[in-house]
Amino acid sequence: MLEAVKLEVVDLHKRFGPVVAVDGVSFAVSRGEILVLLGPSGCGKTTILRLIAGLETPDRGDVRIGGRSVLGLPPERRDVGLLFQNYALFPHMSVAGNVAYGLRFKRVPRRERVRRVRELLELVGLTGYERRKPHELSHGQKQRVALARALAPGPEVLLLDEPLSALDAALRTELRWELRRILKEQHITSVYVTHDQEEGFTLSDRIAVMRDGRIEQQGHPEELYFSPRTPFVATFLGKANLWPGTLRRGDGGAWVDVAGAHMPADAGDLPDGSAVYVLLRPEDIAVGEGEFEAEVERVEFHGDRWEVRARFRSHPLVVFAPGRVSPGGVIRFGLKRRPLVLERRS
Length: 346
Ligand SMILES: Nc1ncnc2c1ncn2[C@@H]1O[C@H](COP(=O)(O)OP(=O)(O)OP(=O)(O)O)[C@@H](O)[C@H]1O
Ligand SMILES: [Mg+2]
Description:
Layout: E1 5-16, E2 19-30, E3 34-38, H1 45-53, E4 60-65, E5 68-69, E6 80-84, H2 95-105, H3 110-123, H4 139-151, E7 157-161, H5 169-185, E8 189-194, H6 197-203, E9 206-211, E10 214-219, H7 221-226, H8 231-236, E11 241-250, E12 253-258, E13 261-264, E14 275-280, E15 285-301, E16 306-312, E17 315-321, E18 330-335, E19 340-343
Parallel strand pairs: 3-8, 3-9, 6-7, 7-8
Antiparallel strand pairs: 1-2, 1-4, 4-5, 9-10, 11-12, 11-14, 12-13, 14-19, 15-16, 15-18, 16-17
Helix pairs in contact: 2-3, 2-4, 3-4
Bound molecules: adenosine-5'-triphosphate and magnesium ion (MG).
Adenosine-5'-triphosphate is lined by residues 16, 19, 21, 39, 41-47, 195.
């Protein structure tokens, strides 16, 4: 079934003085879908959320919720919830008071408020914590309270800006799954901002990769990982061997000349002589035997495998080895599949 579009951002532009923060961004999020905005620091992620929430006014473009433009509405009338990195709970209020905060403004009757707070605390796994104060909670618990508080008024759209980045690695991984479960259970339409690729992969239904105020590519995580359209997307998502070369066509099909080495390639309809990159993920490369050689520079032990940094005809190579490899030595490798070919523009 095709889900209805709930949130739509159309050709948004925003500059701060000389800085172009958002440069023509468009995307649509279906009801109950989680869209992750992924990109390096300063690429405009937070600004987009602030424009959707009504905390900033766009220079151009539109924000639509449920098919209607909300640009004329103040933040509190947009039906948008916010969850940011610094949870900023009210320190003198109890957990229950914090969660109920937004409900008071909505003039929800007391009995209904109590019921809703109980329900939300159960949802975030904090039943029994009603009377605690924020300083009596761990970081993870505080962020759960902040989530319950953001969900309390029942917003149509929830905007999350790196909500887990203040937490330690183990807690992040754990809360990531829980957050996804809760958003899905509540059918909340969400835009989730992060610069952590792994978080983006595990949390999202769809990812938009951003760079310099623009979206470079959007799609499902697998699509972005296996079929990136630009070198930036290829290298931003996961580990990548991206080598410059020249596309050659002959009787046997297409191949790419990478510093004198011939690599078979799926080249689409690019003409002979095209400047290209080949893209190989570490898992596309078999270490041990094969027609290519590389000099090992560094080896990192990762428990389940060794990550090897090597040099292949002056290009950096990253691969995973099943056994120990010595720095300074030479490894042979082969390709498990044809590399992806990306056009190289100067
Ligand atoms: N109020 C402001 N005044 C001036 N410049 C701003 C303002 N807000 C953001 N910017 C600039 O706009 C650009 C985008 O900022 P934004 O906060 O949206 O980036 P971000 O992708 O959220 O980065 P990060 O991952 O570091 O949070 C940056 O160059 C930033 O310095
Ligand atoms: Mg930000």
